[in-house]
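Write out the 3D structure for:
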Amino acid sequence: MSGETRGAANGEVGGQASQPLIRLRGITKVYGEGPTALQALRGVDLDVARGEFVAIMGPSGSGKSTAMNMIGCLDRPTSGEYLFMGAHVETLTRDERAQLRRRYIGFVFQGFNLLARTSAQENVELPLLYRGESAAARHAAAARALDSVGLKGWEHHTPAELSGGQQQRVAIARAIVTEPALLLADEPTGNLDTQRSREIMELLWRLNADRGITILMVTHEHDMAAWARRIVRFVDGVVADDTLNEHPAGVVADAGRTGAGAKLAGGAA
């Protein structure tokens, strides 16, 4: 194993700040062997720069979820190169990929994946517990993360005492408590109604716009993809389309709030 690869797993990243956070080159993934083999990815090339907000779309079986699992270090490619912050992830062992996930990547899932009998505070602390942080450090970081997603005062509530939107906020707080370089969101609004979905997308937008967290989001919903600054579509295991979104919904929402504030200020004057 190269020093560069070992360094990434242990918190040292290679390369220059100008290089992409994520670089996929010729990535393939084949499940099974012989005539029953399934080729989920067929040579994916993709760059994601630091600070981007990218929506990943595509029909079922298009390879988008497989690609996200690869980027999240949950699986290894059959062939090709995956560089994360300049280090070759495809050569890492299972344990080294786990270390990279803990240090650099946060996950948000459609089903929230919260521990049912555990408070919001304790759910958010879990990634820090796995990293060996002290109790005092865990408590302080979890409180800050919950406050940042609008849940100050809800620290001691269990998931059963929270709405679906609040549960997803807890899940987002858990994902960002380690201050990750990358946030992977898999259908984050899939279990929410329209209003709660918009609130979650506004929160993700703010995390990207204000804190510079790179976000990759898998979604089937065009309304949710509209919040991203870039939309990548997968078809049959390859990137079929990669388009910049010139008018993200977050920019429109921000402009609306600014306009409303100006009107209120004018009325008060």
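The chain has a mean pLDDT of 90.
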